[in-house]
Amino acid sequence: MAPTSTPPPTSTAPAISVTNLTYTFPTTPPTPSLTNVTFHLPPSSRTLLIGANGAGKTTLLRLLSGKKLCPSGTILVGGVDPFATGLEGVSYLGLEWVLNPIVRHDIGVSELLDSVGGQAWRARRDELVRILDVDEGWRMNRVSDGERRRVQLCMGLVRPWAVLLLDEVTVDLDVLARSRFLGFLHGETLARQCTVVYATHIMDGLEGWPTHIVRMTLGRVRQFGTVEELSLQVRRAREMADRERWERGEVDIWGGWRNSALLDLVLGWLEEDFRERGPRGPRGGLRAKGEDGEGKEEGGRGG
Ligand SMILES: Nc1ncnc2c1ncn2[C@@H]1O[C@H](COP(=O)(O)OP(=O)(O)OP(=O)(O)O)[C@@H](O)[C@H]1O
To answer: Which intervals of the chain are annotated as region Disordered (predicted)?
Structure first.
């Protein structure tokens, strides 16, 4: 975790472009994880990656981060193939990052932050410590899971990134910490024109945060677009369904907004996916996460 002296490019916010991406895990039998995935996200966007368990979110984020080989020309981040170039300025915070054993050692917060560039980016470091309410006197073997996650997030974000890929790394945060963390990311996308893609199952407190949504179903991108476009589609479909029920004389015509609009949107999608897919049975070829090991690999195949 040596600090890097060269700052990543932050002047031009990178767009993310995925075209006809198919990815198959090299298992026996081969497990298709992504099929013909296509979507485009503009610079400075804040995107939620939404989908049921097993929809392919982690696989996609790892491919975007350059950790896995993908068919040439299918992924461009800022116009560059991430695997081929080992993208400077792309930060991927996912399960392997969360499980890094260093953050459980008897080590102090300042020492950890310095090891990832805390001195080089002093102002960012101090801002993150303040926003995530981190006590620099903590010893990492004597903190709670949520406190540990706050320190980890300071570590993961201290070095300025141009693209941030988050794979559900906020589960341990309390509501205030998560809210301040999301606020920080919101500010970053505006101030530094950088791009965030965030896979999460927790819709609480996200209202108004995302600019775009990518909806994944069973390894495919089913819809993508701005939050407004997608919300409008769902709202219209629900209103039409309510009207039909009302015309049929059904008393309970309130099928609609039970929670926040965002949660209802996602809940509606997952219910739709579930209805179409049916309950899970034994599915040949399924593998537990992590069987393919960690880090950069060349095992996957396209097509
Ligand atoms: N290591 C692996 N080896 C083989 N197949 C895998 C592996 N990891 C995932 N898969 C397959 O890819 C599919 C997508 O997995 P992925 O982890 O990308 O889903 P996800 O959307 O991130 O799910 P979750 O919300 O549960 O984290 C799985 O259903 C599984 O079939």
So the answer is: 275-303
287 lines ligand 1 (CB under 6 A): yes
Beta-sheet strand order (sheet of 75-77): 31-41, 16-25, 75-77
Give the C-alpha separation, 29 to 34, whole Å. 15
pTM of the model: 0.81
Alpha-carbon gap, residue 289 to 33, rounded angstroms: 12
Q: Are strands 212-217 and 16-25 parallel, antiparallel or unpaired?
A: unpaired
Q: What is the pLDDT of residues 138-191, one digit of tens each?
A: 999 999 999 999 999 999 999 999 899 999 888 888 989 999 999 999 999 999
**Each residue's pLDDT tens digit, 84-103:** 666 678 889 988 887 888 88
Ligand 1 center to residue 153 CA distance, Å?
Answer: 24
Q: Is the CB of 260 under 6 A from ligand 1?
A: no
